[in-house]
Predict the 3D structure of the following.
Amino acid sequence: KLNYIKILTNSISGNIFLCIIIWLLGFSVIGLPIILFMYFSKVFSIGFTFASLIINYKIKGLLFSIFYLIPYGLLIILAFTLLMNYAVNLSIKLFSNIIKKNSLNFKKIISKYLIIILIVNIIIIIASLFESFFIPFIFKIITLIWK
């Protein structure tokens, strides 16, 4: 028996926490290398999971990877790529404006950045719903067929 609600809350809370950290780090120049490290570690872990499933479980691992990691991983990578892109651009824009001593229209930047975080959170919720409800069902079917 799986606790689907617990899986959902763990997935949403972990991914949204990472999003909020990246989003907040986008407001600082110092956050730029941290944002890049967090993004690449997230993408690396998804890729590593994909490769290790295939290496360890052969065809069964390939099926699990196709049904789990490709849809879920693509949605998560899309969300984090979108957020990371805007966070890095904001950090670079802040850095260049500090150097050039220019002013910024922070109201416009914040409104656009809030829309991005909202879109990313919606994508994360969709991916988490997929991970917590659809994936266990697919895994049960694959394991029943594979026996």
In short: Residues 31-100 form the longest helix (70 residues).
